[in-house]
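Ticket #4471: structure export looks truncated?
Reporter: QA, pipeline team
Priority: medium

Steps to reproduce: submit the single chain below to the structure queue and open the exported record.
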Amino acid sequence: MVIKAVIFDLFETLVTGFDPDFTPPNPSIAERLGIPEAEFRPLLRQLDDEWQV
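Actual output as written to the record:
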């Protein structure tokens, strides 16, 4: 038996509906990881190249 599902992220919808003035933060991946952007970009490029292999 195969189970199929669709998952929706309703956070934005629910929060916006509750507080229309709410603006979610939009940090970069580097900011979320606490890594300077200049150091993160080369790492991301390297990881992307390795992932494509």
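Status: closed, not a bug. The export was complete when the record was re-opened. Leaving a note from the reviewer for reference: Residues 28-53 form one domain.
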